[in-house]
Structures are given as C-alpha cells and as structure tokens.
Amino acid sequence: MSNNSDIKPNLISASEIKPASMDLEAVRKKLADAKGPKYWRTLEELADQEAFGELLQREFPRQASEWVDPVSRRSFLKLAGASMALAGLAGCTRQPLEQILPYVRQPEELIPGKPIFYATAMPFHGHALPLLVETHEFRPTKIEGNPLHAASLGATDLFAQASILNLYDPDRSTTLTNMGELRSWGDFAMAVNSRINDKDGLKATQGAGLRFLTGAMTSPTFGWQMKAVQQAFPQSKWHRWDPVNRDNMRAGSKLAFGGYYDPVYKFENAAVVVSLDADFLSGEWFPGFVRYSRDFMRGRKLENGAQMNRLYVAESSPSTTGAKADHRLVLRPSEVETVARALAAKVGAGGAAGNLNADQQKFVDAVAADLTEHKGKCLVVPGEFQSPAVYALAQAMNGALGNVGQTVTYIDPIELDAVEHGQSIKELIADMNAGKVDTLVIIGGNPVYNAPVDLDFAAAVQKAKLRIQFSNYKNETTDYMHWHVPEAHYLEAWSDARSYDGTVSVIQPMIMPLYDGRNCHEALAMFTDQPGTGSHDLVQTYWKSQHPTADFESFWRTSVHDGFVANTASPARQVSAKLGALPAPAASADGIEVAFRPDPTIYDGSFINNAWLQETPKPLSRNTWDNVAMISPKMAADWKLNQLKDDNDHQSDAQRIIEIVFPDGRKVEAPYWPQPGHPDNAVTLFVGYGQSRAGRVGTGTGYNAYKVRPSSTQYIAGGAKINVTNRYWDIAVTQGHFSMDDREPVKVATLEEFVKNPRFAHENPEEEPKDTPQREETLYPDYREKGWYAKYAWGMSIDLNSCVGCQACAVACQAENNISVVGKEQVQRGREMQWIRIDSYYEGDPANPSVYFQPVPCMQCEDAPCEPVCPVGATTHSTEGLNDMVYNRCVGTRYCSNNCPYKVRRFNFFLFSNMPGTDWDTPSLKLGRNPDVTVRSRGVMEKCTYCVQRITQARIASEKEDRDIREGEIKTACQQVCPTGAITFGDINNKNSAVAKLKSSPRKYDLLAELNTRPRTTYMAAVRNPNPKLASGTENT
Amino acid sequence: MAAPDILPPKGVRPPIIGPGQTFGTITDRIAGIVLTKHTPIFWVAIVAISLALFGMLQTAVGYLLVKGVGIWGITIPIGWGFAIVNFVWWIGIGHAGTLISAILLLFKQTWRTSINRFAEAMTIFAVMQAGLFPLIHTGRPWLAAYWLFPIPLTMGVWPQFRSPLIWDVFAVSTYFTASFLFWGIGLIPDFATLRDSAKTLVVRRIYGMLAMGWRGSAKHWNRYETAYMLLAGLCTPLVLSVHSVVSLDFAVSVVPGWHTTFFPPYFVAGAIYSGFAMVLMLAIPFRYLYGMQDFITLRHLQNCGKLMLATGQIVAYSYAMEMFIGWYSHDKYELAMVNNRLHGPYSHYYYMLILCNILIPQSLWLNKVRSTPWMLFLVAVVVNTGMWLERFVIVVMSLQRDFIPSSWGMYWFTKWDMMIFIGTMGFFTLLFFIFIRLMPAISIFEMRNLIPQAKVKE
C-alpha cells in the first residue's frame, strides 16, 4: 500500500533513449493487464521502461537536443575533481552542471518574482473560454478567467483550471514518430511533400482520397486555411468527430428552423427557467456555462428584497442543475420528450400531448401556468443530450412564449462549417471501407478509442494508405497511424477561437512548445504552398486579411492584449421555430434505458491523464479516479446490492460490478452507484474512462463506456438489461455520509419563509433563541480586544444559494497552492488533500431528494480550536485573523486536525508532494508549480490559507505606495474562479467592503456557531423558490 | 518446584509470607535466581520469543521512519489511532508500580513488599513502551524530539505551553524519572547483598558498583529510609497527575466524547485498574515459574484482586456517567456520541469493552476467584484487553463522527499498526525477563523485615 512514493525519477539521459516502439507490444500488454487497484504499482514498472522522459530535462529541447558536447580532457578532469570532492556527500544526487547567469539584457516587463498576466483562450471542444494566464519568468503557472470578456467575466471552470497540468504532463507525446520509430520534422515534411507532389500524388488527383478529421473547430484562421486547402485539393474532405458533440441540437435546430443555429441564452432576463435535461450549471460541455451560471445566479442573490427567479428541471440523470432546481421532476431519459411535448401543447407551441402520469401532469400544468404568466421573461432550455425533438419543442416554446430576443437569441453556428459529427464520421468510415481514402490526417482526438463502436473505426482506418496523426498524446489511435506528430498545447502555439456568443479570441502562447509540438494551423499548412509557416504568422496573416487597414498593428495589439477581437460577437438571426412534423417519439423499449454522459471531471476522456481532475470528486457521487454506473437507490435495493449505508461512513468500499447488456449484444461491466434522484429502470454511463494508453495517471482507471456506444444512440439507448456479477470494484469516495442528520450545516428555507423571517438561519425554534454563545464565554485569548485586528481583518462569505457544486474552486485552489494529489488508494483511506471541499447533502426521499452543496475551506476561526493544542506552536494566529500554518515548525501530531470541528485540515501522511502525476522529480512538472507557495513535505499539516501569498503581495504593493489595501485588490483563488460569484473575500474591518456587507445580511450564519469558534468564513443560507401551486410530492422544496 | 497454594480455613486470611522462612532462606531464594549459573529453559524460550517480537518492532518502526505515518490506518478525521491507544494503555499499566511502592508504603501496607520491586520494574518498562508512541506517532519524529523539549534557544522559539501534548512530555518524563530513582534507590541494599553473596570477581565488581558503597551501617539505613520516604511522598501525587495529564489530551479538545470534565479521575482509576491487572499477569506466572509461592502468597493475589474490583467499580461508574451526562446534556453532538457508541459501526467494540471491564470482573466478588491464581490471571487478561478497548473506543469512536457529517470516516488499522503494538509487548517482556535474571525481582531486605524474627520489641 505504501509504495506510492517509490516512483523512480524518470531521468533518462538522451543516449539511453530507445525508441518507444521497441517493446511496444510489451508495454501495451502491461497496460492491458493493469486494472483497478494494481494501477500504481504497474505504472511504476511502466515508468522504467517507456521512454517518456527523454527531453524533459531541458527546457528548450528543440535547440538543445541537437547540441552534443564531446567530453574534453579539461572538462573530464574538472568533473573528476568535483566528483572526488563531493564523494563524501554520497547521499546527495549529483546536480547537473549548470551555469547561472544574470540576464544580460532584462526582458521587457520582466521583474523576477513578479508574475505577468497574458490574455489568451482555451479552445474547448467547439468553443473558447477566454483566459488570463499567470506566468512566472515566462512559465505559465495559473489560469484565470478574462474579466474583460463577456464569456468569462473573470471566472473559469475546472477544465480550464486543470489544463495547465496537461501542459506540463510528462506523459504527453514528446516525439515525432513513423511506425513507432523516431523521426525528425524534416522527414515528416518530406513524406507529406512527396505524397502531395508524387506522380500519382494528391496534386495530381486534386486531393481525391485526402481526408481531414478534426473535432469541432471555431478558429477563423483554421477555416480560412481549410478553405485554401480545399481550393488546392477540391476532392479532399473535412470530417468532424467529437465524442461529446452537439448533434442532437443541430438536428433539432434543423427541425425547428430548417437550418443550423446556435442558441444564446440570456438568463439574466428570465424569471422562470425550465430545463429539459439541460445541464447548464455543471461545466463547459454546455457552451457558455461560465457566463450562464453567473447570469442565472444573479437572479438568486436576494440583494434587493425577495426577487428571485425560479428553476424547474425535468431531467433524467441527476446533475448539479437538478440539484439547484426549485422543482425537479425525475424522468427516464426517453420520458423527457413526452413531458416536453405535453408542455409545448400546453403553452400553445403546438403539437399534441401524450400520456403523462399524475406527477408529470401536475408538473406540466404548474410549469405551463408559470411560463404563461411570465411571457417574454421565461426560458425553456433543452438539453444537449436530449433528442432533436426536445430541442425543437423547447425553441418552439420559447417562440410561443415571446422569449426570442428577450431571453434567447439565435446566431449562426460558431462551429466552422457546422455538421452533425455522427453523420460526418459515418461518411468517413464508409469511404475508408470503400477504399476511397488514401491519406487521412487526424488532428487531435482519439477516434479508435471513442468513435461509435458499431462503425469499427480501427478496422476501417487500416485501409487508408497514409495515416497521419497530430495529437497531444500517443493514444490508442497512434497504434494505427503511420506518422504521429506531437501536437502543441494551446498554451504553446498561436491560434484563435470563438466563445459561445461568437466573439473571437486570439490564443497567444505562453511558452515555447515543450516538445516541439505543432498545432492545427501548422498541421494544415503542410498541405498549402507554405508548409513551414509558423502558427503566429498564419494567425496574423489571416487577421491582416480581415483588417487590412493601416492601423493593423494597434488592432492586433489591442486584440491580443484584451484577449478578444472587438465586435466579433455573432449577430442575432431573426428566425422563428416552426413545429413541423416531429419525428414520432421512439417507441419506448422494454428494459432499462441507458444515458451516456461526459464524465463530470475528465470530460470525454481528454483529461484522463490529469491527476487534479482525476482526484476531483464528481459533484454528486463524490467518487474519484473512476467512473461509475449510476442507478437509482430503489434498483439497488431491489437487486439487494449493498446500499449506501450511513452506518459505514466511508464508502470507499468495494462496490459490486454490474454488467449492462445492450439489445445488440454489446456489454460493459461497471461498478454500480446508487445515486439519489436517479430515475428507476435507467442507468447512466459516463464516457471517457477505461483508456489503455492514458499515461501514468489515467491508465487503469474506470471502465470504457464508448465500447457500447453506437452511432445510432449516442446519448440515450433503450432496452438494456443489467446482470449483477459477483465481482467487486474499489471505489474511492471523499464523502461517505450524505445526510445532514440533525446538524443542519446547510441552513435552508423557502422564499416564503425567508420573507416571513429573514433571519431564519439563526433561530432554531427547538433551541434557545440565542444562536451564538456570548463573546466572554471563552477561555481563549480575546485577540479582538487586544487590538490584533486593528488594520485588516480578512473574512470570507460563501453564498450557498449561488454555489452550483461545479468543483472549479477545488481545482483552482489545487493549482494555486501546489496541493498534492494522493492517488486512488489514499483517497480510499480518506487522505485526499484538496483544501476546499464541496460537501453535498441529500434530504428527503432518495427517489428525488433535495440536494445542497456547501464549499468548506478553512473557517479561519478567531477562537480557533486548532491553535492552542499544537505543542510546538506551528499553527498560530496572525494579527489579521488568519490561522497561519508554519510548515517548517510542524512536527505532525495531527492534534489540530482532531480538534478542528470543521475537519478542514489535511495531513501529508506520506511524501504526497512526490506522488506520481504531480511529483517533484519530473522536470516538466517543476515548471508549473506556484513559486510563491511552499511545497509541503511529509508529516506536515496543511490547510486553506485564504491564499495568504496573494494577501502578502497586495500588502507589499500597498506599503510601497503608502496606502491601504483596496477593496477587491485581493481575490482568493476559489473566489476568482467561481462562475456564480458564490465566494466573496475581503476586509471585514472595512464596512463598505462587499464581504462586510454580505456578513451583515440576515441570511449570514456561522457554521457550528454553538462552538463559539467565531469563524471568519461565514455562509449565506440557501433559499429555494418553490411554486406554491406545486404541493410537495415529486418535487424539491 | 512449586508448593501448592493452600487456602486457609474460612475467616483466616492467607499470610503475606509463607511459614518457615528465615533471613537466610529469603536471601538465598531470591538472590539465587540471579546468582545462579543455571538459566532456566523457559527463560531462554520467553526471551527468544520476545526478542523476535522486539526485532519486529524495530523493523516496523524503521519502516515507519522511512515511509511516514501513512503506513498506519490513521486518516482524516481519525488522526490518532493505535499509537495513541497504545500510549494511553501502556501508561495506564505503568501506574500500579508507583501506587504500590509509594502510596501503599505511606499507608504502611506491608503486603506490598513482595510485589513492589517487580511492579516498579513493570512501571518503568511500561512507561518506556508508552514513551515510544508519542514520538513515533508524529509526522516528523526527528523534529518532534527536538522541539517538544523546552530548550532555550537563542531564537526564543519555545514549545507552546497551552497544549496538553507538551504537558504530556513533562508529566511522562517526570514520572519516568521519579519511578526510576525510586526503583534504583530501593535496589541499592539488595545490590549490596548480591555483591556480598557473589561467587565470582566480575559479578562482585558489577554489583559492587551498583551498590554504590553500601555497607549497611545504621547511618546508611537512616539516610536510606529518609530518602525513600521523601521519594514516596514525591511520587504519590505523580500517580494521580500522570494519567490526569494524559486524559487532558482528550478533555481539553472540543471533540464530543473527549470534551469531558471527569476524564482525569476516570483515567486514573482505569490506569490503576489495568496496572493491577498487569501486576497479576506478571506475578502469577513468576511465582509459578520460580516457585515463589511463599513470597507472593495468595494474600497478595487476593489484595490485588480486591483493588481491581474497587477500581473496576469506579471505572464502571465512569462509563455510566459518560453515557448519562451525554444524554443529560441534551447536546445534539453528545447525544450523537452516545448513540454512536451504542449503535455506530464500532459498537461491537463498546459492547466488548463493557463485557471485559464491567461484567467479567464482577466475578472478583467471589473469594474463590480471588484465591485461584489461574482464574485471577484470566480476569487480569480480560481486564487489560478491556482497558485497551476503552482507549480504542475513546480515541477512535469519538473522532470517527464528530461535528460535520460530510467528514465522518472509518478507521481500519494496518499490519504495521499491529506489528508495532505486538512488538512493544515483546519489548516489554524482554526487558522484564532480563530484569528478573539480573536483579532481585523481590526486595530481599524488605522481605527480611516481614518475618517474625525481624520484629524488635520497642
């Protein structure tokens, strides 16, 4: 169990590198054998063999790798002498010879030790998230949202936060290979060139047989390049495949509008929101999530009296959107369409209602009434993973309710040349099988792993004569490729992309490509007449053509600096949804319905080797390092599977494996998870896991749901059967007890109750009216009276009404504070390290419970129980009210953690900072650490510091300017990333600060106030806004 | 070799020393164990086994130092596990020695004489085991050893005197020092006896050095008695203070199940309870193996039994109060703690504890049990098991479910936990049997005082 930190440093000197392919079979076999709990150990062995560390030791491998220094006699003697001198230090590793030189000329704007922020954007599967990236000495260390950009307003999501770790991932593809043999870029360019210019090459055939396969692209430059390529090779074709795609939306759009349009929602204008399986509060797979969740939650801040929007959610798989709903209707995946039809008929959007049961009817009646009451101020949001008909119905309802232009507008697709991906890859595979494809260029993606299983991409692709892959990782697809070219990370090369509303961001790189990678523009340039052009020139050339005026330079500089090109948001199209003949609803098959969903933390599998995301608990099930098959608690009880039991608080137990058998005979085995609120007779499978070549972090985690996902039923499949096996799967969860019991850590009321008694969070009728003990009732020193908090008193307010449980804060904190990952086995033991955790609590009927999220960082108590019990004074009280951890004083008695009633302290049981995935031996990972934060050693306690390094930076800046720290000058990492603005931080001494104002709100309460710890982190009680007409029954309250 | 235990007729208590002993026989019998060249085979066997266990302890501690405390079952929220359980348990065991030596001496309980020497040795060896745990349980023992002691550095960085853990350091080290001195002073006249009876020069020289020039003059005896009484007076409060301070590790905290004002007397009673159980666990085999039934008579065993019975009742009362106050406070966290003891995932530990520490020891009311060595031995084993469970219940079950339900957790000990625990038992046994072989396990000169010939008319 404890060999986890035994990973040997994979420093392989360049001479020892053998081509990765030499024992590819052995490695693959090893990976195939690596399953479940053995995963660390197997990877250690793997780490010795696979040559993935070769160029990591050098920062600029492109230049350095060419330079071979013969050992001169002089340097030999020098080294020999030094070795003799250092022979006594046997325990020390020999340091590589380095010359330390000051900058001869200081780079512009660089002040060593001070970070510089650059604007850029993260392309995320068909749209862009605008970013501001913190760099230290030109190394990106932390990602923030771009506050100037409407799609971010300073916030991001967990994928953007974690993408920085992908940049430094030592398992990224580092070498250009041909059939597994190392090759140079020149060799590759020559091969492509000869393919184009040969006698019967692509030029001769006008590109017949030349095919490109990419994911959804929004880059205008890429579109311009592709157009040029297609002009040069008119017979070539461009196919698209993203496993998590918007096909149903596209198809629905065609149904409703007769063409492809993207919706842009304006949640800030909506008083009533109805979600038809739309998960717009979870993550970026709902394009615009960051902005949408902020807009939506702005209607729930209760800043001006009792104004609050209302959210109805009719959904199948439980999502965080459903968790935030005022009313939630639990439906099997196919029933959503039935409800949508009934609702559309009721609000006058046309169509006919089908048969509903009593609960559904009641829900539909109430929702329809509420919608009609709020014409023009309501919004129906269809889910991306629901049938096209649901999309069409929802937009028809929006039309009928007068919402178009008010709460929703339609724009041309931001995706270049929008297609339905399922159709597109089907065509490609059909052509490959027909022998029509002879040159296939795959840019990004991993179709062998994630293409629809019935199409058998792997078999078809072998019929192409020349197969080229540009990819970040050597993955399953690489095995079928002739050429593999390492793709540049988005922080390594120039590009551009559109955000959900069409605004274009220029993506500027932060660092030179670590492994000589090329991005999609450079890949495509190979097929133009300027094959060697770099990404910067390509992007700039395109924009020059778009902006051919004399002030291009200032236009370019402004766009790059601001992170977006001004006035590029797509104009709204005046279209109206016509409900023509909808396809008949799929006949409900007997058996169990299956919903395929992207994984909440590793998405479609592209983040599988990201240790931060692997260890981030999934918002609802709180499990890590695996995907599960969600079923309803009733199904689990019916099958007598051992349930979530509250008498066993840590559910990191072996779970039974169930086998899901599809009508076509395909089957997959997965650990079951009884998820409260999941519909009966349905199962949710999460795609993205179960990869065989996922690097040291991802290999061996989870099961592969793609192998049962056919092209016909990409998101909802019916007629499945489930067999319960007698085998078990270890599940690592971070929270085992989901009931609040009588503790009420989350205080909640309905809007009505809130209006009646705004201070509801304070008075528990069953207890004494006094909710906090008096100040003098303590034996602790009264720091306040001693004048400790005279200058600043830092405090935090967390609005439970706004928190959607998206986990972005936890990952942001991990990135900012160099927090270790510990691995699945340690999570099972309950030793996860994330400083801020999001507790989820379920209340009520397990079939459809109320769900509450509560982020819990350190409370920074004024009377902190942790402080007096430390025998060495390693946790002390600062004059500004923080509980400071003195790491180098800590001896690790863990008494402080025992005595912390909030259990926010985290202990380094092992040398966690050297765990695989975020270890400190791997050179590339060293670059990504925040230099302002200590990396903790073994045996040391740690916890949330309120980002004390940011406080200190602000203090230094203010003292230099002889002023006080301004309100809003300091943002903690969790606050900065939060899309809904649930977290507010500041000086509570300043009565005008946002946090002080929030703390004077009647909704403010202290967690465990009865202990008189006087926490500085306080909560704003949750308020739900149920429809009075919907009596309790199927809905949330 | 052993004379059978003969129970005297009803109403008559067994003597505290067997009939027919003279000054000479006492000296020869006790010194004979040490000065003989013949090492009994059972001694070799026991020492071999405990040496193996000691080796296991060293391996486990070595691995711990290399890897970190993560090899144990502790986690968040259960930050303390076996190490602290074992620490409190061993410290508790170490309590009987000083109680017998100091308090019973002050109360002029002469029956203490034949058991005080090895009880004191037991105390010292038990405290040695206990002292190991607070050190190795820290995340960085090399720093803990250095920073927990108040060394006046120029930096002015002192330990934090508000923390009960630092009180522990003082309490335990004071207790160890005082017990060691008490034991050492008591040994001086006996070392002189061994010196005088030794047959070889080397042995004579060694015991001569240990005897520190003792000649047995009246002045020596006078000073000896004064010093001994003074130390007894010093040690008496220590008997009460050490476990009180240890209990404050828990009582000072906010954790429901720890935050209890009556912990100090509860812990002291429990400590004496387990201490006497350990005295019996050592005395019964010892008197059997070395045929010491004349010196450690049924009277001693009965008295130990009675003391166990008395402290056991205090412990039982404490358990009742713990639950009662939990319920009476009507505090939701205390109520949940009570509920968790009775119905939580570790409730079987709690019921085992009640069985071991309250129900089975009630058999000590029977004279038959108190007078039958093997029955007493079994009860003592049960009580010490129960006392270990008590600490497990307090440490682990309280931490397992405290305030915030999301952070509740479970504790599973690992093989390393077990190896270290069993290893300390081996280390303890090893030290004890080496002690028996090399030092007089029963105080020779005090035993000589017990026989009728020693009584001088005043």
CATH superfamily of chain B: Formate dehydrogenase/DMSO reductase domain
**Largest sheet of chain B, described in full?**
none
Q: Could you name the CATH class of the domain at 110-246 and 415-583 in chain A?
A: Alpha Beta
Topology of chain B as a string of helices (H) and strands (E): HHHHHHHHHHHHHHHHH
Instruction: Could you tell me the CATH topology label of the domain at 110-246 and 415-583 in chain A.
Output: Rossmann fold
- Under CATH at level 1, the class of chain B stands as Mainly Alpha
Number of strands of chain B: 0
Mean pLDDT reading of chain A? 83
What does the overall shape of chain B look like?
globular
CATH architecture of the domain at 110-246 and 415-583 in chain A: 3-Layer(aba) Sandwich
Number of helices of chain B: 17
From the alpha carbons, calculate the radius of gyration of chain A and give it in angstroms: 29 Å
Q: Estimate what percentage of residues of chain B fall within beta strands.
A: under 5%
Domain count of chain B: the total is 1
Please describe what this structure looks like:
The complex is a heterodimer of chains A (1037) and B (458). Among the domains of chain A are: 3-63, no CATH class; 110-246 and 415-583, 3-Layer(aba) Sandwich (Rossmann fold), CATH 3.40.50.740; 247-411, Dimethylsulfoxide Reductase, domain 2 (3-Layer(aba) Sandwich); 592-733, Barwin-like endoglucanases (Beta Barrel), CATH 2.40.40.20. Mean pLDDT of chain A is 83; it is low at 1-23, 34-68, 644-648, 765-769 and 1033-1037. Chain A is built from 31 helices and 38 strands. With 1037 residues, chain A is an alpha/beta fold. Chain B has a single domain (23-140, 160-454), classed as Up-down Bundle (Formate dehydrogenase/DMSO reductase fold), CATH 1.20.1630. Chain B is 70% helix and 0% strand. In chain B, helix 3 runs antiparallel to helix 15, helix 5 runs antiparallel to helix 16 (415-438) and helix 9 packs across helix 10 (263-289). The model of chain B has no long low-confidence stretch (mean pLDDT 88). Chains A and B meet through strand 29, helix 27 and strand 33 of A and helix 6, helix 7 and helix 12 of B.
